[in-house]
Amino acid sequence: MRIENKVSLITGGGSGIGKSSALLFAREGSKVVVADINQTEGRSTVDEIIAAGGEATFVNADVSKATDCKNMIEQTEAKYGALHILFNNAGVMDSNDDNAEATTEDTWDLTMNINAKGVFLGCKYGIPALKRAGGGSIINTASFVSLLGAATPQVAYTASKGAVLSLTRELAVIHAREHIRVNALCPGPLRTELLMKFLNTEEKKQRRLVHIPMGRFGEADEMARAALFLASDDASYVTGTEFLVDGGITAAYVTPE
Ligand code: NAD
Fold first, then answer.
1. How many domains does the chain have?
2. Nearest CA to ligand 1 atom 30
3. pLDDT confidence tier of residue 255, bands split at 50, 70 and 90
4. What is the rounded distance in angstroms from the CA atom of residue 3 to the CA atom of residue 86?
5. I need a labelling partner for 73 at 20 to 30 A (CA). Which of 83, 241, 255, 256 fits?
6. Is the shortest distance between the CB of 218 and ligand 1 below 6 Å?
């Protein structure tokens, strides 16, 4: 087991990457706190972990709210005595996100509040807990669009993920000597609910697929395995990275037929 006796907190643990990671982390020996705004989905992840013989608990949290982030950390320490792995993964992609002219202020604010401020708040309250535990690993879910402009306009989302990557780098530098590693997981386009709702026509899906050398969307489980690496001591000298798991999308200039 790669993270035995560790305590992990995963935001957005009710679906997609967060859910796959919660299940995998529990299989690898971690106690898991699943935080999500969606109680039904979050509780169902916990039920699956417990049914498989693991340990997990659910905390209802909206990561854009400071009180909720403070509470999820407090609940984690109260239940399991420490926090070692903080996976700030919750994120949204608003269906009205578009180019700068068409994107509304509401879409911008909603996206920034959850995707960027949510990661900041997770770190703000989580870092003191990691220090109390003697160190740990933070994984922030950014995206390949932290590094590239997206083919389908989504300026608020792209800007929010750029913020996650920059924040991650700076925190990695600040906390390196406190045994806290901070890395950004940068997934490529995935076959999860978040993206499939946004790329809601075959034409939009194809427009994205054409850029991926592997010619397919990634799976949540493939991100979970990368997150496990970053969470575990296997990544003991890895901090401040943009950890790309993207089917080669950022390596491609022209994609082969
Ligand atoms: P998903 O929609 O399957 O899961 C997201 C989860 O976050 C859901 O359970 C949702 O309820 C929860 N959530 C949403 N807003 C929240 C809030 N305010 N507070 C707490 N929980 C909240 O999406 P996913 O594809 O698993 O995405 C996870 C992360 O990966 C996101 O940060 C997303 O931006 C990022 N990402 C996704 C893709 C992709 O193609 N799907 C690509 C790159 C990055």
1. 1
2. 141
3. low
4. 13
5. 241
6. no
